[in-house]
# Entry
Amino acid sequence: MQKNVFVFGLIAGLLVSIIMAISMLTMYNSSAEGHGTGSMVVGYLGMLIAFSFIFVAVKNFRDKQNGGVISFGKAFKMGLLIALIGSTLYVITWALLYHLYMPDFMDRYCAQVMIDAKATASPAELEKLTEQMNTQKEMYKNPLFFVLFTYFEIFPVGLIVAAITALILKRKKNAG
# Structure
């Protein structure tokens, strides 16, 4: 089980990191406005594609190494560990991209959020949003919050995929 978790966790992590890096660098270097939504969609699709390896890993383990049976708990644990490895690689990749290539990302991101909000928000809502964006920028400077925010982007996706995988693939031993 450990080998499956490690190998498939690395595959998922490398895949999601490559997709995120390409997407973020393309978006960051683009002069077009309003491309953040598209980048976010690509990012979450990349996460789902990468975490589909949770299903592959659990099915492989169940069918080839565990006699065709697996409990919900064991399947979920495998998925959880794969999601943790994949998420950790994603966090490391984002930290390198952000600190080495995109140190002004938060400023640019917050400015785009404000531009998007101006079309529909009232002055009071804009003031409140400005405060929120400034708070978020300050929190992002703290390494602990940086890591937590980044894990919070990806890890819940892995948890959901792990739970769905465990529900689909759980199989008890035949009583006959």
In short: The longest helix spans residues 36-65.
